[in-house]
């Protein structure tokens, strides 16, 4: 879509992703002078223009980052208030938190979550294209299920090999069995600290979430994955009471 904005002629993208970020990108590009429209059936039509111009634009809140912070509060049995969020983009994740015993209060752009001391398992999580449960939340949510009181099942329908974090969570005492697109998580009373490696962006976030409730100290390496997707992740967690340091 970016390349097509200044390409000659018309470009049509059939069966595109329809996440809110796509619509937001279209809004930004059109403000900058692009000619992009979404027509019946969801196809994106781009008529090339000579050039794009400068523009001031506010991007939408990061729904995956917001949901990850909710996981951080939930796994520690704490509470959190997120402001300037976009709850309308997160409708698929809220029922999972509630199923696990969390209380949610959503007012405008604010999300308040209060977690119980003991999480319940979630029966089944199926990742789906938007507006279904986002694949990017599969890993952080799995960390919660590692300490839930029961068995949770995940089915990954978007990407292959998206369970690399499972082996790292196992180093912390998690009980996870993976077969193809299905992962079965048996909750344990507690996780323990370990030296683990970020396998990818969301897998790294999952390890950080798990480390918050683990006994003793955890060391997470290859954190460039986390830094790529979360701004000031360590500082934000520290402000919430986490004991976390980042070393060069």
Concise overview:
The chain has 248 residues and is α+β, with helices and mostly antiparallel strands.
What would you note in describing this structure?
This protein is of the alpha+beta class and 248 residues long. The protein has 2 domains: 3-47, no CATH class; 63-239, UDP-n-acetylglucosamine1-carboxyvinyl-transferase, Chain (Alpha-beta prism), CATH 3.65.10. It is built from 8 helices and 12 strands. The strands form 4 sheets. The chain has a 4-stranded mixed sheet with strand order 7-8-10-9, with helices on one face. It has a 3-stranded antiparallel sheet with strand order 1-3-2. It has a 3-stranded antiparallel sheet with strand order 4-6-5. Strand 7 (125-126), helix 4 and strand 8 (151-155) form a beta-alpha-beta unit. Helix 2 (63-75) runs parallel beside helix 6 (201-213). The longest helix is centred in the first third of the chain and has 13 residues, at 63-75. It is elongated and about 60 Å long.
Name some characteristics of this structure.
single chain, 248 residues, alpha+beta, UDP-n-acetylglucosamine1-carboxyvinyl-transferase, Chain, 2 domains, 4-stranded mixed beta sheet, 3-stranded antiparallel beta sheet, 8 helices, elongated
């Amino acid at each position: 879509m970016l390349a097509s904005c200044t390409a000659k002629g018309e470009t049509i993208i059939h069966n595109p992703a329809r996440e809110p970020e796509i619509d937001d990108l279209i809004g930004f590009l059109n403000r900058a002078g692009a000619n992009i429209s979404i027509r019946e059936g969801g196809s994106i039509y781009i008529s090339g223009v000579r050039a794009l111009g400068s523009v001031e634009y506010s991007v939408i809140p990061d729904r995956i980052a917001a949901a990850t912070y909710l996981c951080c509060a939930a796994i520690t049995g704490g509470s959190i208030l997120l402001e300037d969020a976009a709850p309308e983009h997160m409708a698929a994740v809220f029922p999972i938190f509630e199923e696990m015993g969390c209380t949610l209060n959503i007012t405008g752009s604010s999300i308040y979550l209060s977690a119980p001391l003991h999480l319940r398992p979630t029966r089944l999580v199926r990742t789906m294209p938007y507006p279904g449960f986002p694949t990017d939340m599969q890993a952080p949510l799995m960390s919660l299920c590692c300490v839930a009181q029961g068995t949770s099942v995940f089915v990954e329908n978007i990407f292959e090999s998206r369970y690399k974090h499972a082996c790292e969570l196992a180093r912390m005492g998690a009980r996870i069995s993976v077969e193809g697109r299905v992962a079965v998580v048996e909750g344990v009373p507690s996780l323990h600290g370990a030296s683990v490696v970020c396998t990818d962006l969301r897998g790294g976030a999952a390890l950080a979430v798990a480390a918050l409730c683990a006994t003793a100290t955890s060391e997470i390496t290859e954190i460039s994955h986390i830094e790529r997707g979360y701004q000031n992740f360590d500082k934000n967690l520290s402000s919430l009471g986490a004991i976390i340091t980042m070393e060069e």
